[in-house]
Fold:
Amino acid sequence: MRPLNLTMTAFGPFASEQIIDFNTLGKNPLFLINGPTGAGKTTILDAICFALYGKTTGDEREGSQMRCDMADDELLTEVSFTFELGQHQYHIRRVPEQPRAKKSGDGYTLQKPEAQLICFHSDGSEVLLVAAKVSEATAQIEQLTGLDVDQFRQVMVLPQGKFRELLMADSKAREKIFSQLFQTHIYRKIEDKLKQQALGIKKEVEAMRNRRDGVLQGAELDNDDALSDELKALAPELASATAKKVDTDKQVQQVSQQLEQAKQLTDEFSALAQLKLLARQLDEQKTQIDQQQQQLFAGRSAKLLQPVYQAAESRQLELTQASEQQQKSQAHQQQSQDSLNRSLAAIEKLPNLEAQQQQTLATAQQRRTLLPQLKQLEQLKAHVAQSQQQMLNAEQQGKQTKTKLAQLTDEKLAAQARVPKLKAHSQQLLILQQQISDTKHHLQFFAQWLRGHSEIEQINARLVAAKERGAQLKEQHQARQVHSQTLTLRWHQGQAAILAAKLSVGEACPVCGSLEHPQLARSEQILPTDEEREAAQVNEQSALTELTSARSDYRQLIEKLKDVEQRNHELSEQLPDIDSLTQAGLETALGQLEREFAEANKAQQQLADIESHLAAVQQQEQQLNQQLDQEREQYRQLEKQFNESAGQLKQLQAAIPQELVDLAALEQEIAKLEQDAAQLKLQISSLREQHTQAEQQLASAAAQLQSANDTWARANEQHQLAVSEFERQLQTSKFDSLSAFKVAILTDDSIAALEQEIKQYEQRCITNQANIAQLETKLADCTQPDIAAITEAKSQLETVQQNVLNQWQQLSGRMRQLEQTTEQLKSLDAHSKKLEKQYGVVGTLSDVANGNTGNKISLQRFVLSVLLDDVLLEASHRLQLMSKGRYRLLRKEDRAKGNKASGLELEVEDAYTAKVRSVATLSGGESFMAALSMALGLSDVVQAYAGGIKLDTLFIDEGFGSLDQDSLELAIRTLMDLQSAGRMVGVISHVTEMKEQIGSRIDIVKSAMGSKVELILP
Structure:
């Protein structure tokens, strides 16, 4: 990233708009930002950092705190920054949150923060990437630069007082920075993927083991040997039980067949006895059948004479009916004559009735004229009565609502009184539930604790052997380390003597550049060769590798022991009296807890019901209160209506005479008068109609009487003829008298029933005789069997059969269970073996990739450590120049203490002491040189890798004042080298030498009205 233009408005100490055009400083400038304290030198870096990320370099002030107090109210605080990144240019503008003057009127309004980001392409086109949203702009900048604000401060800006952060960062922080710079996230993804796969396989293995234990426990077996032993012992028992079952089933089948045959023979003897009994009953019915045959013969004879008798009976009936009709016609003629006489007398009264009708109609019309006023009066009375009744009803309803509210209150208090006790039961339910869960876990933990106890003993034995081997390897490593360090120290001490031996008078020293060599270095010891030093280092590293491997194995055993002991300790904490526990005792306690849990659960259900009821009661109470308010309002409205209607009623009653105020009586009187008139009219019409009808009825009655006389004469003649014919045929029949004929008469259904009954009797006799003969022949040589004895024998055999069957079912069921268990265990073992083999590969890769081995270095950190070595090589080159060959940066290879991440910590090698020490021991000036070297080396290496981030700009805020004169000159020379290599370097410093040696400057002029920016060019 290369800055092109920076515009600051009312930002920091700058009251007006200030523009810095970095292009005027040159293509790859080395420039100084100069000015008095408080003028705003650091504010320039703050403005760049704020424009990009919305935060300042020191992160000590928010953007909202950067407004200049001396700026005009109409001027908005904002920062615009144009920079070049790759083949494109970008422009970003940020406005922090701030109060601003209202556009109209007095006062201020709050300006919300906003940000715009624009991309300029090489063809001159531009694209708006972010319109206004601050968070989107920050995310886009992080994506473009590959750095967040903290990483930007550490690798592109060395803020005042912050230059030691990158130098002192631990492995975790440095890993985050380097992974962004070198884009090594793929290795982190590989680590996570392997870790997830390993955890998944491990969980599956544990699940397989738990399922295997569950299968054995379900079969009530302790181990595989118990399964094999029981299968071997069970096979002969099952074979014997099977043979016994087959033999018993055969015996039961035989006796069952014998019993069925005996029952069949007994049924046949019983059937023969029933047939003989039926034969005797049929003989007894013979006399009755003979009588029925005589009755059937007489009925058939009477049926031949019956038509003639029925004809005579019909003629007799017709004669009787004709006589009755003759008498009725005579009586009807007499009644018609009497009616005519009465109607003649009534016709004489018609004039008086008509006059009375006219008088009644006139009186009714006179009374009807009073109806409208009386109806209005009655309506008012009804309305007043209705209003009064509604008031009473509303008052009564209000009392009922109050009564319901009181009842609900009592009910709520009673329910609330029960809640504390039920809550106590509910709390006890949680305790019991936890105790049940704990007891179940105790049963599992008890078995796990026993296995863990055995595993601890095995691990302790292995630890003793590993500890002895570790002590041996440690002694070996220490001896080789002393030898290697001695050779290295002698080699470093002899380098000065080697360089001094090559110096000539007048030639510049490659270390200090001096042309004079007053005191040359000498070595009194024999210097080791490079091959000897490297061989010693290889031997030391070999011994360290073996020691590290042994320590890793020992630590793994320790960790495994700790895991097992921790697991058993946790089990012991959950089962404090584990030595005194038994599985039977735990199961008994579990049963008791489950019974108590059932009682507490019932109480909790009651509590839930009561709480639900209380909620309903409270809701109902609220509804009743609302209803009571409505009823009170309704009562007030009804009372108002009642008063208005009562006033109108009094006015109308005063306007109508007292004797006519009863509407009902008046309407009743009018109705009675109209009814009387109608009745009189109806009576007149009825009298006239009755007279006409009486005349017509008299004529009709005379005609009917004549017809009845003629009918009687004809019926009498036909009756005499029919009687004569019946008497003649009766004398020629077999019947002695009319009574004998009547007794013999039968209906067709009776004749058919007698015929059917006689026929069935004869058929039954024939069939019964044939069956008797058949059974007597079949049972001639047979005797009655003993059913009870055979049944008893069968019952005894069935009891034996059931016992044999139960024994066989138990053995067979257990055999099937064991066979299924065997198959399940084979399947689980095969699956577990496959998973364990898979875990052997994936788990090892995961441990190595995630740094779970002895050195605690993950795959990504290993890759980054290689990159860091390259960075340190470049950084050490510059640091050696600035420190006059004294310091060199190294990567710490020893593992960090505890579980802290390691592999990316830094150390410094001091050539003066030939010792390696922590970078934290460097002084302020030394730290600045080391941090500057680190930043420059990082920039070189990042740009060297394909796809890396291009860091072609560096800003340094202070730190040069801590350097001595020689170190300062070397630092300035290093910065000039950077400039010549195509880097833009901006320096903030008060040091006079910096101002003298750096020609390009950005001077900050401080004044009471705010600071201003001036560009000074050489």
Remarks:
- The CA atoms of residues 275 and 772 lie 6 Å apart.
- The chain has a mean pLDDT of 77.
- The domain at 425-592 is CATH 1.10.287 (Helix Hairpins).
